[in-house]
Amino acid sequence: MNFTRRALLAGGFGAAASTVVNAVGPTGVNGVSDEAMALLLVESRRSLHQLYPDLRRHFVFEYYPWYGRNPMRHWQQWGREPPLDLAANTMPALGAYDSRSISVVEQHARWINESGVGAVNLSWWGRGEFEDRAVHLIMDVMHAHDIRVTFHLEPYGPKRAEQLPADVAYILQEYGEKRQWDCLLLHRWSDGTTGPVFKLFNSLVPKSIRDCHGKEVELRDYVPQGTWRRVTDEIRKTLRHDFDHVTILSESPNAGHVASAGFDGLAIYGPDSLQTHWLEWALEASRKGLAFTFNVNPGLDEIEQRDVAFGSCYEPRSFIPATSPLRWMKRSARERARYLSEHQIGETLATSVLLQTHPWLENVRQGFFLVYVCSFNEWHEGHQFEPMKDWEALTPKERVHGYHNPVNGAYRLQCLQRWLKRLL
């Protein structure tokens, strides 16, 4: 089908179309007003509820069960010295917590429920690892709060592609069958069919890159597309009689590579994949017959590495959404960041819903709708929705470390709740 971007964005929508299209940029809906985004979500609500009676299960928090307290784990990343100096630009409301603490996970579940999100996507680093050992505890708590769990398979080792069929079988047996399917997310398609969904990170990186010194550097996570095709085909063949669907998603935006590697679709991770590119990626995915999903996010406020070696190619990532330099010790700068983050949440949600519900694109044809929320608690990159401490609650010893906490540390979760109420 040959059509313009403007025609595509207008096609299939009612009153929201003119409002959104008048504000649309060349490749997305950047700059759309809150009123236009709200109108779009309200108009999408009825059809989404008709197609997906379990709609809240289609919104999934990225969840990181990798934090430890005794000994410290992850909080000390990049030269930090917890418990006061954390690997985060904002101090969590719960401080430097342990992911295996029942009281911590209970509080997380309450916050997730308050937001309206109905599932979490656990960062998983292989059988028997720290994160894997926390899964049953997390699932017990999430089940008690009517929250489903699925898995984000990380690049945990050089043989992870070859081990993928066995890892998928392990997850389904250990966290599905053994628990009588009490908590594992079985994603529902619009025709009522269901099946597990797995997302892979760093699955389609190039074999090598040229660094800042002009040196060719091989990438550890590289896996040939043919290898992925072989193992994804094996998984589907093995499970073809057990589920209606087994959905395996790659985070790569390159639809051609995703299709060649045998993945079912692309699931873009992280705020640095700016939504100005999402329309092009959705169009290319649709041409390849692939599903696609884009994440709701509050932007990026990543910590900087300390003690960077001489000659290193490391460069800190900029704050997202882009803005003039922020002087964080000033309240006005921290509140400016809050304002930008709140708009980013609404804008990414509206963009993802617009593209996933557009009748000319692949997701509607397949009956697939899934929105990842990035993230509940990835504190290092600073896109967490988990509440921070209010600025006034920071102690003098904590403020010494230059944290970016705003006046209201729960603003991101509250903002997401307000937006999702228009849909759920």
Q: How would you characterize the overall build of this protein?
A:
The protein is built from 14 helices and 14 strands. The protein has 424 residues and is an alpha/beta fold. Strands 13-12-11-8-5-4-1-14 form an 8-stranded parallel beta sheet. Strands 2-3 form a two-stranded antiparallel sheet. A two-stranded antiparallel ribbon has the order 6-7. Helix 2 crosses helix 3 and helix 11 (331-356) packs parallel to helix 14. The longest helix is centred in the last third of the chain and has 26 residues, at 331-356. The relative contact order is 0.16. Mean pLDDT is 93; it is low at 20-29.
- Radius of gyration, in Å, reads 21 Å
Sheet-strand content, in percent, reads 5-15%
Largest sheet: 8 strands, parallel
Number of separate strands: 14
Overall SS class: alpha/beta
Strand and helix order: HHHEEEHEHHEHEEEEEHEHEHEHHEHH
Q: State the shape.
A: globular
- The end-to-end span amounts to 33 Å
Unreliable spans: 20-29
Can I get a quick summary?
The protein contains 14 helices and 14 strands. The protein has helices at residues 5-10, 15-23, 34-51, 102-115, 130-133, 135-144, 160-177, 225-239, 255-260, 278-287, 331-356, 362-366, 396-399, 411-421; strands at residues 59-63, 68-69, 72-73, 119-124, 148-153, 187-188, 194-195, 197-200, 208-210, 216-218, 247-250, 265-267, 291-293, 371-373.
